[in-house]
Specification:
Helix content is 44%, strand content 16%. With 247 residues, it is α+β, with helices and mostly antiparallel strands. The protein folds into two domains: 3-132, Jelly Rolls (Sandwich); 141-241, Arc Repressor Mutant, subunit A, CATH 1.10.10. A five-stranded antiparallel beta sheet has the order 1-2-8-3-6, sandwiched between helices. Strands 5-4-7 form a three-stranded antiparallel beta sheet, with no helix packed on it. α2 packs antiparallel against α3 (121-132), α4 (141-152) packs across α5 and α5 packs across α6. 37% of the residues are buried. The mean pLDDT is 88.
Length: 247
């Protein structure tokens, strides 16, 4: 059974490969063959066989020879997460983004999640955050409160100035502390939260129109376009694969 987890400006999918045509993502993607290697081509017609890969943002990519379950970890293109993952690249040169040094850790924790399901999520999330050096541990409580506001009402998308006032901080200080805590800018974080909220609404049976509007998008087309740009697929296609959502 496919699984989807989202937290902060990150998303993790576990399940069968999507079978997408060559496409680009606005985010960085870590792809892991949980049960077998796979073949990947990017920006060329040459396929490379590997067990894990870090695919840079806006890179033309295509998978083939996928077998068994895959995992796709999506992180923001301008995040601290992406910078940390680049440090996990195995070697310099042509295969610098294939067969990552952190591959054994990813295979272990993500296969535990694949087999154990949501009950394993808390432990696996902690391991992933340790790898990415993210999360909100020891964060300024004013930023934690701002994060709660964003998550409780994704559709409102309060502007930076309003969030800073709630936190009793200047906009510049709030911006700096927010980036330090989440690893991404405020605007990007709000977009990730809104997209996650819309997908979960669709999983609960909401129509694309209702899910889009409830998450603060101006129209279903706006949501679909933004989602496809970020993740390389339509949200409706993802929702059909996922019987439940966890966040």
């Amino acid at each position: 059974m496919a699984q989807l987890y989202s937290w902060g400006a990150r998303a993790l999918f576990i399940g069968p490969a999507f079978g997408l045509s060559p496409h680009r993502n606005a985010v960085a993607v870590v792809a892991i063959g949980l049960q077998a290697p796979f073949e990947l081509a990017w920006n060329t017609r040459d396929y490379r066989r590997c067990r894990s890969a870090l695919i840079p943002p806006n890179t033309l990519q295509h998978f083939r020879e996928t077998s068994g379950a895959m995992a796709f970890l999506y992180v923001d293109a301008v995040s601290n997460d992406y910078a940390q993952l680049r440090a996990c690249a195995a070697t310099r040169g042509e295969r610098s983004h294939l067969d990552l040094r952190c591959e054994p850790l990813l295979l272990d924790c993500l296969n535990r999640l694949r087999i154990g399901g949501a009950v394993r999520w808390r432990d696996v999330r902690a391991e992933l955050e340790e790898l990415l050096k993210g999360g909100t541990a020891q964060a300024d409580e004013r930023i934690v409160h701002a994060l709660q506001i964003i998550h409780e009402d994704p559709a409102t998308r309060l502007p930076l100035a309003a969030l800073a006032r709630h936190a009793k901080l200047s906009p510049s200080r709030f911006t700096a502390l927010f980036r330090q805590t989440t690893g991404v800018p405020v605007r990007r974080y709000k977009l990730w939260v809104a997209m996650g909220a819309a997908v979960r609404s669709m999983q609960r049976g909401a129509s694309l129109t209702a899910a889009s509007m409830d998450a603060g998008f101006s129209s279903p087309a706006h949501f679909s376009s933004a989602y496809r740009q970020m993740f390389g697929m339509e949200p409706s296609r993802l929702a059909t694969l996922l019987p439940t959502a966890t966040s």
